[in-house]
Write a structure and sequence with these properties.
three-stranded antiparallel beta sheet, binds adenosine-5'-triphosphate, globular, six-stranded mixed beta sheet, 281 residues, alpha/beta, 8 helices, Rossmann fold, nucleotide-binding, ABC transporter ATP-binding protein, 11 strands
Length: 281
């Protein structure tokens, strides 16, 4: 459990660090990480020798075929799962606010809490007063356009509104790093577009360290500054791609030839891996 130290974290504790004199700060670092899931009948090697440095304040997307270990890698970075072999380092926790906040594809909100209580939950766990956490939660509800629904319960919301609540909570908690596993995967196409735009805006406002798992190449190109392309299981890093589009960014970049080229090249590289994963899984 967290210690209930009800002070507001200092700015240097809650925002991602930038570029220091010795180069960029590294938020997460994985060195030769392998993960084997053991079961009585068979063991599964999910990751094999993955090494990765994630810069503080960067937006990294992980793309790869189904079952290649994307979620496992994210969970290992966030400390939810342990590597079988290899080392992982994450930013040091300096306050009651957890270093990593998670957003999953579904089930990210507590059905028995109102929208406001859901968004304020992380702050409550970190020991903030009711007044402070409600004020912060209301600000974030405004950013994601859910102010009117502060007192609604999740069953009264659409899927997109529930995901906005989960994303608002992750940002509101004040964690410097957000780990998102297909956060928009369950949404319909139109809502997904709006949420992509909103995620870009929120990230540009906060510049937190984000690692986001997605199946969609377009989404990774639109949101990320870097794409980690993984091979079929056992997951290894096949390519480490720099996304060259500037910020502030919007969905218009999708109509540029550069976007189309990158999308094509990434798909060419991913296609073999997808085929392997379909054959062997
Ligand atoms: N707790 C577990 N116990 C046993 N095997 C697991 C466990 N978690 C994941 N695996 C296996 O590890 C491999 C990688 O799973 P993981 O969920 O990380 O892949 P993924 O790339 O995120 O997949 P998807 O894109 O389909 O969500 C899969 O073969 C999966 O079956």
């Amino acid at each position: 459990m967290y210690s209930l130290d009800a002070r507001k974290p200092r700015a240097d504790e809650t925002t991602s660090a930038g570029v220091g004199a010795d180069g960029p700060d590294i938020a997460y670092s994985a060195r030769d990480v392998s993960k084997v899931f053991y079961a009585p009948d068979r063991s599964v090697t999910a990751l094999d020798g993955v090494s990765l440095d994630v810069e503080a304040g960067s937006f990294t997307c992980i793309v790869g075929p189904s079952g290649c270990g994307k979620s496992t890698l994210l969970r290992i970075l966030g400390g939810l799962e342990q590597a079988t072999i290899g080392q992982v380092t994450a930013p040091e926790r300096k306050s009651a606010v957890p270093v990593s906040a998670f957003v999953f594809q579904e089930h990210g909100v507590f059905p028995w809490f109102t929208v406001l209580e859901n968004v304020a939950f992380g702050l409550r766990m970190a020991g903030f007063s009711r007044e402070e956490r409600n004020a912060t939660a209301r600000t974030w509800l405004e950013y994601v356009g859910l102010s009117e629904f502060a007192n609604s319960y999740p069953h009264q919301l659409s899927g997109g509104m529930k995901q906005r609540t989960a994303i608002a909570r992750a940002f509101a908690t004040g964690s410097p790093c957000l780990l998102m596993d297909e956060p928009l995967g369950a949404l319909d196409a139109q809502t997904r577009r709006l949420m992509q735009e909103q995620l870009i805006e929120l990230w540009e406002r906060e510049r937190k360290t984000v690692v986001l798992v997605t199946h969609a190449i377009e989404e990774a190109l639109l949101l990320g500054d870097r794409i980690i392309l993984m091979s079929a299981r056992p997951g290894q890093i096949k390519e480490d791609i720099k996304v060259p589009f500037d910020h502030p960014r919007n969905i218009d970049i999708e109509s540029t030839p550069e976007f189309a080229d990158m999308k094509h090249n990434i798909w060419e590289s991913l296609r073999d891996e997808v085929q392997k994963s379909v054959v062997f899984s």
